[in-house]
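Show me a record, fold above all:
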Amino acid sequence: MTIEERIFTVEEFEEFVLLPQNADKLFEFIGGEIVEVPSNVYVSNISGLIITYINMYLFQNDIGRTSTEAGGYMVFGERYAPDVAFISYEKQPELPKQGYCPSPPDLAVEVISSDSKSENEQLTIKLSNYLAAGTVVWIVRPEKKKVEVHQPGKPAITLHEKDALDGGDVLPGLSIKLKDIFK
C-alpha cells in the first residue's frame, strides 16, 4: 500500500520510517514512493518454507546468510524488503545491526500476496533494479502455484508445481520441489 501519492527523497523516507508510529511497520522505498509491505499468514508460511530449505542448504554449504522481510537491502538508492533473501559472505562479510544492508542480495524472493495493479507496478520496478544490481529474483505466485526465475542477462523461466526450483550459480546444488512449497 502506497503511503502518499507523491515522490519522496531517500532522506524523507529514512525520516518517515524512524517516526514512533512506524516502529512496528515495515516499509520499502520503490520508485520514490513509500510503500508499506503487505503480507498475510499464507505468504509468510510459503516464505518460511523457502527460507528453511535455503538455510538447510547453508548448514552444509556455509557461503552466506539469509534474511526475511524484516531485513531490508539498498538497491540503487531504493530500499527493498524481500520476503526471503540470501547474501554471500563475499558480498557482505558482516551484516549491519540496524538499517538496510548497503549491498543488494545475491538472491531475492518475492512472494506475491495480491495481484493488484499497484503491486505489479512496484514489482516491475524492483525486478528491473534487482537484475541491474546482479541479483537473481524468484517471484513466487502461490495462487497460480508457479515461480518465475529471473537471472541477470538470461531469459526468465517459469516453473510450475511439478517442477523443482534450482539454486543456480547463487546456491549451486540447491533443489526445492515446488509441490513441497505449495502444499
